[in-house]
Design a protein that fits this description.
149 residues; seven-stranded mixed β-sheet; disordered N terminus
């Protein structure tokens, strides 16, 4: 399809985030934005390490999610196996082995937005806002979630 065939509003909105402040900015946008439940696929240890690098510890994110009543479901891997008591009233969690699925990036789905952020340096990420793309990624999440039950 050529550019001329897109009607206004039909193109996905893509936003790039670079460096620690960019990733922190995206996290805040995600926490305070609309969209309901957060779906997240990630490597626990690498995500915690990244959050510490940007000065936004996981505990701060948990407090904000609780304060704003943001529910989440997460599929995660961790080097030492399942994290004890990781499922809470606000967060349902399912573990997947790092040997089989060594996630190299965070994937977050909320509302009509998806965010991808690789764990390597330089820190960066990309957000895509598009209803069809978000719904398709949500179906991928749901298929994996159902398969892990």
């Amino acid at each position: 399809i050529s550019r001329g065939q897109f009607e206004k509003g039909e193109r996905p909105m893509v936003k790039y985030y670079e460096g620690p402040n960019g990733i922190k900015s995206w996290l805040k946008d995600n926490l305070f934005g609309q969209g309901g439940e957060v779906l997240n696929i990630f490597h626990y240890d690498r995500a915690i390490e990244t959050l510490l690098k940007i000065g936004f510890p996981a505990e701060e994110i948990r407090k904000l999610r609780k304060k704003y009543k943001i529910k989440s479901r997460v599929i995660y891997t961790a080097n030492k196996g399942p994290v004890e008591n990781y499922s809470t009233a606000e967060r349902q969690a399912r573990f997947i082995t790092p040997e089989k699925y060594p996630f190299e990036a965070d994937i977050v789905i909320r509302g009509n937005r998806i965010f991808f952020s690789p764990y390597n340096i330089p820190l960066r990420g990309v957000a895509i806002e598009d209803k069809a793309i978000a719904n398709s990624m949500r179906m991928v999440f749901e298929a994996l979630w159902d398969n892990l039950s």
